[in-house]
Design brief:
The chain is mostly beta strands. The protein is 0% helix and 54% strand. The strands form 2 sheets. Strands 2, 4, 5, 6, 9, 10 and 11 form a 7-stranded mixed β-sheet that branches.
Length: 114
């Protein structure tokens, strides 16, 4: 059974940092594309960053230069380092793994105060 569990969200002031973690079980993160998405109240879920099996990454324009996605194959985890956070980064952040199906975690809340 595939399971993704996010952690690391919280409340931070603008300019601060957080590191989100996505722990995977039942599937290998090293062999698949893993992405972070976010959804703010009243808005559609959007792609934030993703990393594929050969560690190619891509980012939404709004987070380029501030967020970094990485992967630890030994721990079967994916991280999202978020620096210089802005109030507009406030959202629920979700981890998603794509194989033939899509697998989502339950999300973790990130709130950035001004």
């Amino acid at each position: 059974q595939v399971q993704l569990v996010e952690s690391g969200g919280g409340l931070v002031q603008a300019g601060g940092s957080l590191r989100l973690s996505c722990a995977a079980s039942g599937i290998s993160v090293s062999r698949n594309t893993v992405a972070w998405h976010r959804q703010a109240p009243g808005r559609q879920r959007e792609l934030v960053a993703q990393i594929n099996s050969v560690r190619n990454t891509n980012y939404a324009d709004s987070v380029k230069g501030r967020f970094t996605i990485s992967r630890d194959n030994a721990k079967n985890m994916v991280y999202l380092q978020m620096d210089n956070l802005k109030p507009e980064d406030t959202a629920v952040y979700y981890c998603k793994l794509t194989l033939t199906n899509e697998y989502w975690g339950q999300g973790t809340q990130v709130t950035v105060s001004s």
